[in-house]
Amino acid sequence: MHDRVGLPDVVAAASARLPGGPPVSARRAAAAAVAAGRGGRRGRGGRGLVLPAAGDLAGGLRGRRCGGGAVEAGRAPARGRGRRAVGDATDGPGDGDARGGGRRGVGKALGSGGHDDGEAGHEHATAGVEPFFGDRQAGIATAAQAHALFAAFDLAAADLASGEALDAAAVAANLEALLRDWSAVSAALAAGEAPPKAAIDGADQFDAEAVASGLDPARLTVTFGIGPAAFAKAGLEAARPSKLAELPEFDGDRLNPAWSGGDLLVQVCGDDQQVVSAAFLELRKRAVGRGTLLWVQQGFSSAPSGGTPRNLMGFKDGSANPEAGSALFDERVWAVDSEPSWFEGGTYQVFRKIRMRLPDWSVLSAEDQNLTFGRERDSGAPLSGGGEFDHPDFEVLDDSGLPAVPADSHVAVVHDAAMVRRGFNYDYGFLTQGDVSSDASGDGHLDGHMHAAHPYDAGLLFVSFQADPQVFIDAQEKMAAGDRLAEFITAEGSGVYAVPSGAPDGGFVGEGLFRS
Ligand code: HEM
């Protein structure tokens, strides 16, 4: 029923259909809006909102797409792939000894070129190489790339050849081998080199697929996380990070097991989709016999030059993140105390596939959209005044004497939560496959055609890194209880993972776990 994919068939792995489909046109999106639109949204001061007629709605969508210049601006030239040779790029600014606590050129702010001029992020974009080895794993403090792929695996429970159940020691051996091989592959690909040959490759096969041949590494990063259940399966329960436990299901969640959980999460990011896809295929190949692919999600992010990326609701997303490498960033992200020693310097990653009700959202007035977030859509500035990077002032009143930043606006509800967000937009178009849809229990037909809602599956692959996942839980509970954004979003996938610190040169991520 769900997309649980066995790994033995490597050929199938290469051609496996990933969730998602072609982007839809504004006209089709408008049709979905008409089909799915609903009224009665709360506006300012509890006023009900009236949805416009279908024709206006379609026009509104078209207008928004055309009018959203900044949204549509796409990648700035600075984010274009550097075409320098790898050796040259490796010597470029922002690599080598800059990894870890103070990585040079990591970008002033995650997901943006920076709070000021974005030059630091630019340096890395030009170099094209994000070193894999270092104190911290790459892909956390790294300025967000244009593309991301998240793949979750479960550890194999049975021997591939004999079918016999594996004991904990064998599962641990598989986990170790997987992390070792994955690290070696990731390090090579990130440096623009051919990865080591996979054990399952025959003598007459190419050492590596030529999928990304001729392309530079495009700031490829691969980040590994370990899910809560993996530790017990591998007999390593005593070494489980102290705050790692499955997330609860929150009010309003509509979680699809096919998009949730996993013993391992692999986050692959890069400025070139082809490079990301090639890396995924190389990684997946190494999982044969060791793990089973559970789910894959793919996202994208486009930052206007030196600016903060926008989500698919049109708002700048990431403005309140602390600067990468700042004391506040370090304090929020890196786990230090009360952790097993092997995990010190790691972090906890929360992943949520959050679908947006874009048809509903698109018919809100500009004022109501702004009030939902507590910020101005175009500038990103708090409604209390100031610029994008100023803190909202919850004491400031508007002309009608109400708080300028409503108490139930998103930023008021989650303000100052001690996390760093690094999400990516996703747009899978219209869901047409009942078997991958959490709407399948509705009226999904055998041909996958959904009559009830023609659901448009687009939203945010929410990612947060934090020293304590309780921070996410607290913020999410507050959102579920009283955030007006909650009316427009539904979490459909969920997971939490312990992300170990980085690997030393030639080592592998999570190495310390097997010596603890
Ligand atoms: C589709 C879902 C979501 C969307 C579209 C969204 C969008 C935004 C936007 C536009 C901002 C203001 C700009 C910024 O600081 O980045 C923001 C801030 C923030 N969001 Fe979300 N968000 C979503 C879900 C979540 C979730 C699930 C959490 C955590 C449980 C969260 C936590 C935060 C935090 C901590 C801030 C910074 C608030 C501050 O300190 O002022 N968001 N979000």
Description:
- The protein is of the alpha+beta class and 516 residues long.
- It has one domain.
- Helices cover 25% and strands 14% of the residues.
- The protein has 14 helices and 9 strands.
- The strands form 2 sheets. Strands 5, 6, 7, 8 and 9 form a 5-stranded antiparallel β-sheet that branches.
- The longest helix is centred in the middle third of the chain and has 23 residues, at 168-190.
- The radius of gyration is 23 Å and the shape is globular.
- The model is unreliable at 1-126 and 435-452 (pLDDT under 50).
- Residues 311, 313, 315-320, 352, 354, 356, 373, 375, 410-411, 414-417, 419, 421, 459-460, 462, 472, 475-476, 479, 489 line the site of protoporphyrin IX containing FE (HEM).
Overall morphology: globular
Indicate the mean pLDDT.
77
Q: What is the domain tally?
A: 1
Oligomer: single chain
- Contiguous helical run count: 14
Percent helix range = 10-25%
Taking pLDDT < 50 over at least 5 consecutive residues as the criterion, the unreliable ranges are 1-126, 435-452
Give the termini distance in whole angstroms. 39 Å
- Based on secondary structure, the structural category is alpha+beta
* N-to-C series of helices and strands: HHHHHHEHEHEHEHEHHHEEEHE
Bound small molecules, by name, code or SMILES, are: protoporphyrin IX containing FE
Strand content: 5-15%
Rg over CA atoms, rounded to whole Å, is: 23 Å
Biggest beta-sheet profile: 5 strands, antiparallel
The counted number of beta strands is 9
